[in-house]
Design a protein that fits this description.
- By secondary structure, the chain is of the alpha+beta class.
- The radius of gyration is 14 Å and the shape is globular.
- The protein is built from three helices and six strands.
- A hairpin with a 3-residue loop joins strand 4 and strand 5.
- The chain has a single domain, classed as Trna Endonuclease, Chain: A, domain 1 (3-Layer(aba) Sandwich), CATH 3.40.1350.
Length: 118
């Protein structure tokens, strides 16, 4: 069996994130482009959109500072996105050690949000 590509592993992680959002009552659209800063757009009826970039890592990223260091360029790109009023821009990272880790991207940096695994 051929080795799986980074694209297919990343896509599978995006599908896991999408399924988690759907399970929590969100409508979700996935961007098919592999080089777009936003992978998923999610919303609930009457709510504001969540613009989400999904990453997977085999590293032990247990602190916000490590995540910031590992994804510096991605975070910078997310910080510059023009966003609708009330929307959030988020970075979701899945690691084998901690499961999902969720970060809100602010103009001044990132903020750890409810990172308690899955």
């Amino acid at each position: 069996m051929p080795a799986r590509s980074n694209y297919s592993r990343g896509r599978d992680t995006e599908y896991l994130a999408r399924d988690l959002l759907i399970l929590h009552g969100f409508q979700v659209v996935r961007s098919a482009g592999s080089h777009t800063p936003i992978d998923l757009v999610a919303w609930q009826d009457g709510g504001h959109p969540r613009l989400i970039q999904v990453k997977r890592s085999n590293s032990h990223l247990d602190e916000t500072v490590r995540v910031t260091r590992a994804y510096r360029q991605d975070i910078e790109a997310l910080r510059t996105i023009s966003r609708p009023m009330g929307s959030t821009v988020e970075l979701w990272v899945r690691t084998p050690h901690k499961g999902w880790q969720f970060y809100s991207i602010l103009h001044s940096g990132i903020c750890d949000v409810m990172n308690d695994g899955e």
